[in-house]
């Protein structure tokens, strides 16, 4: 909602009709940031859901909240200069990687249970709970 409201605000402040606004770099930055965030959102939802379902809900929820905060930072950084958005982008990639690895660990645990009868769920939950606060380190 924040991204859409910023896009609408910039659209109203620019002269012209439609999305053809030559020379409006502020609108272009807001529009591009909104599109980038919109394109990354389905991937985020998929890995968040898989990590929470297959591995552990608490670290996945923490990582999900961190990701939403980081995307906000990315968007606001994109409104300034493009180099200001780089830390938010890299931080977001790290969180997506963490969620993906959680999903992978949950799938691996499932197959270990299925084929060998070994359950490492407690160990995986302990490791992910210990690693998730490390996501706060920039």
From TrEMBL:
GO terms for molecular function: enzyme activator activity; glutathione peroxidase activity; glutathione transferase activity; leukotriene-C4 synthase activity. It holds the Pfam family MAPEG. InterPro entries: 5_LipOase_AP (IPR001446), MAPEG (IPR050997), MAPEG-like_dom_sf (IPR023352), Membr-assoc_MAPEG (IPR001129). It is a multi-pass membrane protein. The keyword Transmembrane applies. GO terms for cellular component: endoplasmic reticulum membrane; nuclear membrane. Gene3D superfamilies: Membrane associated eicosanoid/glutathione metabolism-like domain. The chain crosses the membrane at residues 46-70, 91-113. SUPFAM superfamilies: MAPEG domain-like. The keyword rRNA-binding does not apply. It is found in: Endoplasmic reticulum membrane; Nucleus membrane. GO terms for biological process: leukotriene biosynthetic process. Keywords: Endoplasmic reticulum, Leukotriene biosynthesis, Membrane, Nucleus, Transmembrane, Transmembrane helix. Homotrimer. Interacts with LTC4S and ALOX5. Required for leukotriene biosynthesis by ALOX5 (5-lipoxygenase). Anchors ALOX5 to the membrane. Binds arachidonic acid, and could play an essential role in the transfer of arachidonic acid to ALOX5. Binds to MK-886, a compound that blocks the biosynthesis of leukotrienes. This is Arachidonate 5-lipoxygenase-activating protein. The gene is Alox5ap.
């Amino acid at each position: 909602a924040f991204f859409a409201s910023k896009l609408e605000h910039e659209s109203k402040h620019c002269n012209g009709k439609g999305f053809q606004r030559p020379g409006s770099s502020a609108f272009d930055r807001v529009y591009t940031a909104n599109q980038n965030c919109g394109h990354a959102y389905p991937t985020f939802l998929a890995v968040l859901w898989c990590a929470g379902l297959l591995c552990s809900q608490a670290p996945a929820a923490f990582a999900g909240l961190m990701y939403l905060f980081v995307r906000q930072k990315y968007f606001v950084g994109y409104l300034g200069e493009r180099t200001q958005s780089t830390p938010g982008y890299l931080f977001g990639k790290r969180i997506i990687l963490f969620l993906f690895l959680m999903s992978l660990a949950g799938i691996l645990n499932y197959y270990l249970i299925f084929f060998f009868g070994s359950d490492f769920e407690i160990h995986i939950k302990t490791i992910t709970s210990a690693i998730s606060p490390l996501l706060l380190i920039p």
